Amino acid sequence: MTTAVLPMFPLEMVAYPGELLSLHIFEERYQQLLKDCEEGNITFGIPTYINNTLSYGTEMRVVEVVKRYPSGAADIICRGERVFKLVDFYNTLGERLYAGGEVVFQISKNDASLQIKEEFVSLLTIFYNLLDVKTPEVAIQAVSAFRFAHKMGLNIEQQYELLQISSEMDCFVYLIAHLQAAIPTLKSVNRTKELIKLNGHFKNFDPLDFKDYRLE
After folding, report:
1. 20-56: buried (b, 16+ CB within 10 Å) or exposed (e) per residue?
2. Alpha-carbon distance 10 to 47, whole Å?
3. Left (φ > 0), alpha (ψ -120 to 50) or beta: where does 52 sit?
4. Rounded mean pLDDT of 73-102?
């Protein structure tokens, strides 16, 4: 098993490969990390801090420094690259102020079929329509399982479970199951909202014909 050592920036969130993430860097140790990333063209890791543990995370690359402040703080944009599993964690990386970790990168399988991508996009469109949110235009063949993971109502535990799935096919299966569970709930909520709107209004009921009836 080949391992690598990465600077670490633990956060209580999940970052995904392909995702663009905006960060405000203000602590001295992370100002140092940013400087090292820029000067050495190195990547760093964002391991998810969850339930007092660190295990899985995503390798990140700085793609733009949007703004620098006189204090040394900065607003940056970074992009997720690969999922990793921590083998070891160091509170400081050598003489650096920031943390580090030994990692093994997860081997991802691009095995999703066109059929499952179509099913996912179809359910996602229904989900967004129920929320009255416009569905972004996507090329179905190129759609990524991680692209909408932060925009589907997944809690952090679910987002973290998704991060650990190496098969893209299984990622879509996971997301489809979530949408299939969420859509009926949203429909029920929308019906309730409509009933609440009607409360106090005059209702126009269809007349009933009582010629054919029986008492029970």
Report:
1. ebebebeeeebbbbbebbeeeeebbbbbbebeeebbb
2. 5
3. left
4. 97
Tell me the average pLDDT across 8-27.
96
Domain map of the chain by residue range? 4-105, 114-198
3-state secondary structure of 97: coil
DSSP 9-58: --BSS---TT-EEEEEE-SHHHHHHHHHHHHHT--EEEEEEETTEEEEEE
The pLDDT-based confidence of 215 (bands split at 50, 70, 90) is low
Over residues 21-37, mean pLDDT: 97
Out of 2.40.50.140, 1.10.150.120, 2.30.130.40, 3.10.580.10, which CATH number does the structure's domain 4-105 have? 2.30.130.40
Tell whether the model's pLDDT for residue 202 goes beyond 60: no
Report how far residue 120's alpha carbon sits from residue 180's, in angstroms, rounded to the nearest whole number: 10
The pTM score is 0.85
Instruction: Determine the 3-state secondary structure of 203 from DSSP.
Output: coil
Return all residues near 144 (Cβ < 8 A) that are at least 6 apart.
Answer: 18
